[in-house]
Each structure stands twice: as C-alpha cells, then as structure tokens.
C-alpha cells in the first residue's frame, strides 16, 4: 500500500482516527471524545510520537472532524476509510456512493447504536472533503463467507427471508488481519484451519479455513457469543420472558442489562476491566476469580464449538487488549483445550513482550500465536485497494 489513508471510526460520542501510510511507525492516531459535552477533547499522537491534547468544548462530530481534518490536511490523505460495524449482506469494502450509504442506513435496525454514528461521520467527511474517495469497510463483511448452516438460526424461515434475521458476525477486520498475519508467520499463508480469539472489551472468536471465515461467535448483533466486558454473551433466550414475568422489566431494560451491565462486570459486580479483575482475584476477591473462570471456560467452549467448521487446525491466535497482554488468560483458556493437543510454552507465554507478535506453543500439537491486531492498518489496506480498483475501471472506460 503506497497511499496515505485516513481511517475514521465514529462512535456515538467519539471519533477514533488514524493516518496510515507505508510505515507503521509513522502513524498518526488519536481519539476525539466526549463529543457534544463541555469536556469534548482530542487526544492523540502526532508525528514522531509527540502527544497531542486539545480541548474543543461542546464540539459535535462535524466540528471535531473539521479540527482533525484541518490538522491532518498537510499530510494529503489520498482517501478516507470508514469503519462501519454493520454492512447487512454486503460482502466486501465498498466505495461510498448514495446507493451504498442507503444500504448502511438500511442495516441500522441491526446495529442501532453503531450505524447512525458512522453515518454522521460519513456525511461530515463528505461535506468537508467532497473530492476525496471514501470507502466503507464493514466489520461484518469478512464473515459473509460463512455457510448457511453456520449463519442461520433455527427459527421460522420468514424471519430470515423477510427480516434478515441471521448471524452476521463482527470484528471481521481484526479476525481477517490476525489470521492472515499468523498464517503468514507460520509459513502457510491463508492455508488450512485457524481459530482466532479477539479479546477486548468486546470479544469474539472465529474459525477460518483457507483464509475465509467459516463460523464466528457473534451473531445478528455483537451480543451473542463469549463473555465480554459488559455483554453477557450467550444466555438462554427464555431469560427475557423469565425477567419480564418475574421482575416486570420491559424489553429495553432487559436489553440494556444484557449489553451494559452483564459480562465480567455483572459477574464480578466490580469491573468490566480484565486487569482490575486479575488484580482483585490475586487479592482474594472470589467474584473476580469466578468472572475470570467463566470468561476462560466459555471462551474455550466457543473455540471448541467453532472447530467443527474446520477439517483440521493449524493453530490458535490470541489478539485484542486481553489476548495480547494477559499470559494468565491465555494459559487458563488453553488449559481447557487439552484434547486438541495444544501445548503451551509457559515460559514463552509469560515472557512475550507487550505489543509484540510471537509463537507461544511448545512445538508439539497445533501452533499458538499472539498477534497484536491492526484494524486501522487493515481498513487502510482495504480502502487503498477499493480506490485502486475504482481508478483502474475509470481508466479502462476512458481508454
Ligand atoms: P481493548 O478493547 O482491545 O482495548 O481491550 C481492553 C481490555 O484489555 C480491558 O479489559 C483491559 O483490562 C484488558 N487488558 C489490557 N492490558 C491487560 C493486561 N496486561 N492484563 C489483562 N488485561 C489487560
């Protein structure tokens, strides 16, 4: 990728940005946060690793983007890549056109917290940079290769045919990046079967065969699957009616509870942050210990389940804030998977430096890797390739 690409990830009150060029060390990145409030500010890293902190009281998305883009214009980005959580049934990154924007809007009922925020960012950058090519890169796209038996729910068919109720999967850019990178380092680029565990505040697992996602733990929304910071992951669907009937809660309150008050936070009643829980557990907090145990057991169970999508397993890859940094969680998770022949190199696991990639198995059984994710890099790469393809089509038409 020789182009300089600006990557934008708009949330409801924040904007993550990164200016990605050839060398990862040259990356400029940061976060505009608390947008719409008096505490709105931009925090980031500029050229040469210098810290940037800028108060922009009461700035909204458009105003924050104006400030950001003003500062970054000197670097002449050649395109903008937007992270978009839900692309419905779109199977790949797309140049933003009125039709694609319409499809992102149409997918809003499936990602009501995310897609509207992305659209605000897209509309603002289109107003500010009308001449720059802009691309949407979808979290869901990588999983569009899942077979129907992995993406269909066992509910009446009309819910799928008339209302798009199916499993979509998320964290696609991360699973795609780490599986490609891991298989490359292992000398079998995009060959064979890999299991990936993206473990951050949101967590998901994925099974990848010959470079294609064949199953993943998240479903129609990012609530399904493994235990997360504040999300429950899988529960018995009858929990909803049980709580409604016995506690009198409405569906919105139940939904909020499952998304924002469950997971590690709900189990521990202490924190959604794994580091805090490990420290509390070491100090004797039994709820924190149980939360960690449930997290690792359910994670291993998810990986074992996903293995049904693979004819054989080359290896397992850990990524995300927890996966990259916690040797303890990696060890505990692998300890629940002995029947796959995983054999952790405990010393290698414990001594792997933060932020570095490395192999941590004892060279028997399937490989185990830690690969720091690079969602921004992957979004930039996909953006550059969509723009190049569009330019080639344009040249061919003119020739
Ligand atoms: P992310 O959403 O990918 O930024 O990951 C955030 C999660 O990573 C939080 O739960 C953090 O507590 C966790 N995390 C970061 N560093 C560590 C660490 N050294 N040990 C355990 N968890 C960590």
Protein structure class: alpha/beta
Which ions, cofactors or small ligands are bound in this entry?
A: adenosine monophosphate
Radius of gyration: 21 Å
| CATH topology tier name of the largest domain | Nucleotidyltransferase, domain 5
Reported for the largest beta sheet, the result is: 8 strands, mixed
Number of discrete helical segments: 15
SSE arrangement, N to C? EEEEEHEEHHEHHHEEEHHHHHEHHHEEH
Poorly predicted regions are none
CATH architecture of the largest domain: 2-Layer Sandwich
Strand segment count: 14
User: What number of domains?
Assistant: 2
Could you say which overall geometry the principal axes of the C-alpha atoms support? Answer: globular
Terminal CA distance reads 25 Å
Neighbour order of strands in the largest sheet: 5-4-3-2-1-6-8-7
Which band does the percent of strand residues land in? 15-25%
Written overview of the protein:
The chain has 399 residues and is α/β, with parallel strands linked by helices. It folds into 2 domains: 5-138, 2-Layer Sandwich (Nucleotidyltransferase, domain 5), CATH 3.30.420; 187-375, ATPase, nucleotide binding domain (Nucleotidyltransferase, domain 5, 2-Layer Sandwich), CATH 3.30.420. Helices cover 40% and strands 18% of the residues. The chain has helices spanning 61-72, 98-106, 115-128, 148-151, 157-163, 172-185, 239-247, 251-260, 263-268, 274-282, 286-306, 320-325, 327-335, 346-351, 375-398, and strands at 5-10, 15-20, 28-33, 41-45, 51-55, 79-84, 94-95, 134-138, 193-199, 203-209, 212-216, 315-319, 358-359, 367-370. It contains 15 helices and 14 strands. It is globular, with a radius of gyration of 21 Å. Helix 1 crosses helix 3, helix 10 (274-282) packs across helix 11 and helix 11 crosses helix 13. Strands 5-4-3-2-1-6-8-7 form an 8-stranded mixed beta sheet, with helices on both faces. A hairpin with a 5-residue loop joins strand 4 and strand 5. Residues 200-201, 229, 273-275, 278, 320-322, 325-326 line the site of adenosine monophosphate.
């Amino acid at each position: 990728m020789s182009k300089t690409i600006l990557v934008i990830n708009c949330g409801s009150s924040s904007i993550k940005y990164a200016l990605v060029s050839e060398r990862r060390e040259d990356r400029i990145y940061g976060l505009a946060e608390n947008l719409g409030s008096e505490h709105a500010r931009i925090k980031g890293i500029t050229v040469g690793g210098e810290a940037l902190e800028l108060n922009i009281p009461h700035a909204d998305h458009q105003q924050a983007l104006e400030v950001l883009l003003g500062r970054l214009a000197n670097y002449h980005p050649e395109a903008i890549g937007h992270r978009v959580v839900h692309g419905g049934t779109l199977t790949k990154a797309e140049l933003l056109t009125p039709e694609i924007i319409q499809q992102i809007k149409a997918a809003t009922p499936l990602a009501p917290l995310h897609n509207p925020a992305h659209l605000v960012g897209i509309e603002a950058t289109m107003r500010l940079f009308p001449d720059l090519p802009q691309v949407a890169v979808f979290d869901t796209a990588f999983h569009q290769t899942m077979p129907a038996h992995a993406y269909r729910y066992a509910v009446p068919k009309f819910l799928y045919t008339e209302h798009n109720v199916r499993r979509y999967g998320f964290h696609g850019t991360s699973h795609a990046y780490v599986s490609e990178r891991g298989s490359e380092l292992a000398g079998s680029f995009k060959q064979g079967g890999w299991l990936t565990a993206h473990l951050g505040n949101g967590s998901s697992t994925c099974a990848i065969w010959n470079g294609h996602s064949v199953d993943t733990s998240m479903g129609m929304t990012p609530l399904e699957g493994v235990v997360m910071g504040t999300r429950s992951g899988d529960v018995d669907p009858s929990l909803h009616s049980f709580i409604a009937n016995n506690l009198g809660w409405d569906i919105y309150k139940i939904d909020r509870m499952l998304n924002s008050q469950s997971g590690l936070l709900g189990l521990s009643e202490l924190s959604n942050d794994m580091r805090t829980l490990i420290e509390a557990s070491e100090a004797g907090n039994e709820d924190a210990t149980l939360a960690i145990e449930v997290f690792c057991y359910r994670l291993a169970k998810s990986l074992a389940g996903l293995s049904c999508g693979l004819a054989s397993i080359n290896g397992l890859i850990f990524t995300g804030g927890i996966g990259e940094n916690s040797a303890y969680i990696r060890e505990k998770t692998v300890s629940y998977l002995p029947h796959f022949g995983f054999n952790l190199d405990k010393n290698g696991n414990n001594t792997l430096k933060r932020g570095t990639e490395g192999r941590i198995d004892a060279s028997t059984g399937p490989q185990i890797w830690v690969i720091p994710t690079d969602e921004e890099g992957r979004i930039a790469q996909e953006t550059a390739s969509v723009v190049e393809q569009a330019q080639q089509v344009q040249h061919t038409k003119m020739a």
